[in-house]
Amino acid sequence: MKRAPTGAALNVRSFTWRLHLVGLCLAFAGLVLMGRAVHLQVFNKDFLNEQAAARHLRIARVSAHRGPITDRNGEALAVSTPVDSIWANPRELVQAPDRIPELARALGLDAEQLARRLARNANREFMYLRRHMNPGDAAEIAALDIPGVELLREYRRYYPAGEVVGHLVGFTNVDDEGQEGLELAFDHWLAGRPGRKKVLKDSLGRVVEDLESIETPNPGRILGASIDLRIQYLAYRELKSAVQQHGAQAGSLVVLDVTTGEVLAMVNQPAYNPNDRAQFVADRYRNRAITDIFEPGSTLKPMVVAAALESGKYRADSRIDTNPGFIQVGAKMIEDKDNLGRIDLATVLARSSNVGATKIAMSLEPQQLFDVLSRFGLGRPSASGYPGESGGLLSHHSNWRPISQATLAYGYGLSMTALQLAQAYAVIGTGGLHRPVSLIRVNEEPIPRRVLSAATSTAVLAMLEDVVGPNGTGLQAAVSGYRIGGKTGTARKFAPGGYAEDRYTAVFAGVAPVTNPRLAIVVVIDDPSAGEYYGGTVAAPVFSEVAAGALRIMAVPPDDLPARSPSRSTTIAANAR
Fold first, then answer.
1. pLDDT above 90 for 229
2. What is the DSSP string of 233-283?
């Protein structure tokens, strides 16, 4: 007779059964997991890799800095400094609404407005929150570890010389693209080419590792401008002082190296600071020396005299009868301040005789006069390459009437820029050679083009020296130790209904030194309103200061030093012999 199982035996049998069941379940689960792993890693491998890459691999942009702009001596005029921009992935950030107020406080934004912006862009993956922040401030925001918020390294343009070079250099926009001046004209040269790299990001969008470089960034190239920053500062200071002193509306000043055609200085008033975007107003940032045209007044007379000499009808010692001090041309009476009588060509310029210049111009064939003025570069851009450069206005001689030819003789009825006038006087200073204007440093002197005979330019230059002499209208342009040649100009400004009786443009244009000219300088003061308005009293002193400083900076030797008296030792030696 079998004994019934005891409780202990039943418990052991039940435990064994459960153990086997659990073991079978675990084995089955292991097989399921193993099968799933095999399925995922063998059969679904490509799909999963694609999904992982889509979620964690990104192509990141690597910024390239813009090339610097320097003056002819390597002094920085424009440089790019690293900054950080804050951007967000709205899709991720809207999923953490409790962090938005914290982010808004850090950025100095209104939390509700930021939330609305994010909601409007919730279907996008990129949105700028703040551009061009100081890297230290941006790092503090990044340290908050807010989902979807990242930093982007960019570059911001900085102009060390500020408004002193603002008109010439120009500026860039927030995306570092040239908008004005050299920044725009040479944007293709200065702009860098950004690179690309593949990065691994975590679930919060943070970069974990740089995986590979796809395209190496190429920084922009250096641009060497033609200006000398020392002369630029000098010109800026003197022009600003003159505009303020005479209550003028505006002013421009250009300094050219006549031997190369390089612009050594170019300044305007009013000025603007390219570092301050609040000052980006067209009336302030346009380069008046290149874009604004004016009637040159009597500064055109040397070119009329040059045309007379080129025609063969006149010689340097020819005389003009200006009696009785006025001349009638059509309905217009052209007068001199005084009756100068019978005078030579040098006196026509020195005393700025409108009657004498008119008689000379009227005696020439219109085509002869037009051709010479055109060869000086009037009526067309100087080919400097500056954006928005004006070509001025010189109507074709076939459209001239007698009164047109008469008034043109003393600078009315045509217009030009300060740069064009400087280039024309550079022709006189170089013995009749025309060189293209350059805003970029010239390494090799360009091949000039002869537009006047050497004899004509030499004769006119000698006459211009008399203008700055004791009996000339440009005495205040004189520079101690140097022989100076130049011409004053005072032109009434055009107004509705004709020419204004109380608004003028004061101009002085000249070259220095006369013995071996190096500089052509033009000063234009627009609408002086403090009493003085003549070119000889308003613009000529500015020329004198700028020419004196520039000649010293360039180490140009004086050509008008007083004769040295014999020293005591030399006298004793001579007596001993």
1. yes
2. HHHHHHHHHHHHHTT-SEEEEEEEETTT-BEEEEEEES---TT-GGG--HH
Single-letter amino acid, residue 486: G
C-alpha 253, offset from chain centre: 15
The length of the chain in residues reads 577
Give the residue numbers spanning the domain of 403.
Answer: 229-553
Give the CA count within 13 Å in the CB-facing half-sphere of 412.
18
Bridge-based pairing state of the strands 127-133 and 485-495: unpaired
Q: Assign residue 122 the CATH number of its domain.
A: 3.90.1310.10
Q: Is 94 left (phi over 0), alpha (psi -120 to 50) or beta?
A: alpha
pLDDT mean over 23-35: 80
Greatest CA span in the chain, whole angstroms? 169
Residue type at 294? Answer: F
Residue 234: how many other CB atoms lie within 10 Å: 23
* Sign (positive or negative) of CA dihedral 334, 525, 471, 465: negative
Query: Directed axis angle between helix 418-429 and helix 301-311, to 10°?
Result: 40
Residue 548 C-beta-side C-alpha neighbours within 13 Å:
13
Residue 422, pLDDT above cutoff 90: yes
Does residue 329 lie in a domain region? Answer: yes
C-alpha distance across the termini of the chain, in Å: 169
The count of structural domains within the chain is: 2
Q: Are residues 242 and 127 in the same domain?
A: no
Residue 226, CB half-sphere, CA atoms under 13 Å: how many?
27
The residue annotated as part of the active site, out of 63, 85, 226, 298, is: 298
pTM for the whole structure? 0.82
Same domain, 205 and 245: no
Same domain? 203 vs 352? no
Q: Are residues 218 and 245 in the same domain?
A: no
How do beta strands 433-434 and 449-450 pair? Answer: antiparallel
Q: Which residue has the tokens 């209550």?
A: 247
**Domain match, 324 and 202 both:** no
Q: Does the annotation count 241 as an active-site position? A: no
Structural domain includes residue 327:
yes
Helices (H), ranges, 210-353? 229-245, 282-285, 288-291, 301-311, 345-350
Res 137: pLDDT = 82
